[in-house]
Specification:
four-stranded antiparallel β-sheet; single chain
Length: 265
Amino acid sequence: MATKVSGVRLIVPETMPPSDGMVEQWRDALKNSAIRLNQKRQLAIPDQGKFQTKLAAPAGLEWAKMIDPAYRSKSELSAEDIKTAQIKNLMDAFSKWELGLALAFETVDGVEAKRFKEAVDNKADSWADGVTRKTLRFTGDKTRGRSVAPIAAYWLTGDKRVEEMLRAGDTVTSGGPLNVAKTGFRTFLKTGLVQKLVQSGVAIVRSEGDSAVIDTQNALINEFMKGIQDAGFVDFQPLNLPDKSFCRYEIENGILYLNIQVVTP
């Protein structure tokens, strides 16, 4: 008979702004590494040949997948005609791409990469707004407390420190933290699950809680869990069922939660 051995329901905060100094750290890190970033870019893509193989061709192929094969434009161009033209435009774009970067990293008024650094300054508020509405809601930080992604990873690897990380709005539904990873995969589960939960959470936020997106992301999360879980637990799957293990995002009364349940056969 299936037995529920561990469970927790974690609330996703509506917003979480950057902590004091975080925006400045992001801005300064990018500006201070501007020259090194440009040097690495020049080494990786030094000429048109590398541009075409590393950037243009892969981008063109991915873009082409979005065109309906049956589509025909008003000027009677077929989908294949459009794909070919777009890929050709991308392949020929090296000079424009190179010129734009050269201008961005040019020394102006004695300041190296002045335009790049100005662009970073101009993007600081936008970056702060983005992490407030998206990433930080799922990660939290060390200073003010962890959020759902690291808490879930600690919980599902049996790290007792997670009990001190739980916040108002979080609910333990059964047992306590429990390591569900198969032997040798505990660290991989912890790091991989954090990344997956943040990625999926941001996708859900961007979709404004679209149910189809939630279903898709829950399927991906649980497929990841199923691949590295110990066989002694009922397989992780995306549905909220009393006799199944799951790790899934849910919306209730407009609030986003991460619900975790672990079941043994």
